[in-house]
Amino acid sequence: QVPLVESGGGLVQPGGSLRLSCTASGSMFRFYPIHWYRQAPGAQRELVATISSDGTTKYADSVKGRFTISRDNAKKTCYLQMNSLQVEDTGLYLCYDAGSDWGQGTQVTVSS
After folding, report:
1. Alpha carbon 67 to chain centroid distance?
2. HEC states along 31-56?
3. Are the beta carbons of 69 and 51 closer than 8 angstroms?
């Protein structure tokens, strides 16, 4: 399996926004749910958002109303739009689907 490729992270001030991208290579992308996780230093990996193959979305309570997950099956890409970012959102963000290997993630740092 080919690893997913995450991008779009960076350093942003509290209240700012970022859009993360997750790109797959497999031909079955459109059939899989896609999950975004984040890993903060010293903490367990946390499931942040999921989008199913039919577009149904779920969010962790901590990000509801601030994050939006979406997908473009033609581009084999999943997006995570993050608004009103908080210091607590800092971490390594990784995406996952059952047809791919884990990628290296993209770092998000929220700091003033």
Report:
1. 9
2. HCCEEEEEECCCCCCEEEEEECCCCC
3. yes
User: Which of 28, 64, 35 has the alpha carbon at shortest distance from 49?
Assistant: 35
Residue 93: burial class (beta carbons within 10 Å; 0-12, 13-18, 19+)? buried
Compute φ and ψ for 74, nearest 5 degrees.
Answer: -65, -35
pLDDT at 28: 87
Rounded to the nearest 5°, which phi and psi values hold at 35? -120, 140
What's the length of the chain? 112
Core vs surface per residue 42-64: b (16+ CB within 10 A) or e:
eeeeeebbbbeeeeeeebeeebe
Q: How confident is the model at residue 31 (pLDDT cuts 50, 70, 90)?
A: very high
pLDDT at 45 over 90: yes
- C-alpha span between 92 and 107 (Å, rounded): 4
Average pLDDT over residues 15-35: 93
